[in-house]
Amino acid sequence: ENVLTQSPGTLSLSPGERASLSCRASQNVNSNFLAWYQQKPGQAPRLLIYGASSRATGIPDRFSASGSGTDFTLTISRLEPEDFAVYFCQQYGSSPFTFGPGTKVHIK
Amino acid sequence: QVQLQESGPGLVKPSETLSLSCTASGGSISTYYWSWIRQSAGKGLEWIGHISGSGSTSCNPSLKSRVTMSVDTSKNQFSLKLNSLIAADTAVYYCARLRGHLDLWGRGILVTVSS
């Protein structure tokens, strides 16, 4: 299976700062079928990005993503208070679909 | 706007079978694929499997021998059965709409496996 690792595990930042989150796959992600999700405590994950770089409906443009092959990045250009959460990547290019362990972005 | 709602028991005994349902409101389940995902402190997010509106399935090999999925279009509902439960199956179970990515999630249901 395609194992995803995320770094850093935790990111301490202040509102207004830029966040850069990494997701690395153990094998090429077919067709760049990689998604990013945001999860807040007590809530289900929310889709942010699909196809490595396409924003989901209603997602603000301060969220952007890039990458291909095995290396992918999610960037939040200027952190808003509501952006402090856990972020997961997921590949759906090969079965079984797999998730990364998450990066927690918390307020410094 | 389609919404998903999981239902089922919150507590199940070891060795028993977990039965969960997910009901879709605001849209038909016939058109898409539908997934089950679980989240535990120990294993993070884990894809269990998915089922189409016509009933074709795909499962995570790690769970395949214990998983049964079904769909009931008359009730706009799909279901998961997980047998031979152990403590490690304790998790929040989510249903979600699969479009490759998972674009719509239920709120999740906490299932605890304990005697």
Name some characteristics of this structure.
heterodimer; A: 108 residues; mainly beta; 7-stranded mixed beta sheet; 4-stranded antiparallel beta sheet; globular; B: 115 residues; 11 strands; 57% strand
Question: Overview of this structure, please?
Answer:
- Chain A is built from no helices and eleven strands.
- In chain A, a hairpin with a 6-residue loop joins strand 9 and strand 10.
- The termini of chain A are far apart.
- In chain A, the strands form two sheets. In chain A, strands 2, 4, 5, 6, 9, 10 and 11 form a seven-stranded mixed sheet that branches. Chain A has a four-stranded antiparallel sheet with strand order 1-3-8-7, with no helix packed on it.
- Chain A has 108 residues and is mainly beta.
- In chain B, a hairpin with a 1-residue loop joins strand 9 and strand 10.
- In chain B, the strands form two sheets. In chain B, strands 2, 4, 5, 6, 9, 10 and 11 form a seven-stranded mixed sheet that branches. Chain B has a four-stranded antiparallel sheet with strand order 1-3-8-7, with no helix packed on it.
- The radius of gyration of chain B is 13 Å and the shape is globular.
- Chain B is 0% helix and 57% strand.
- Chain B contains no helices and eleven strands.
- The N and C termini of chain B lie far apart (39 Å).
- Chain B is mainly beta and 115 residues long.
- At the A-B interface, strand 5 and strand 10 of A face strand 5, strand 9 and strand 10 of B.
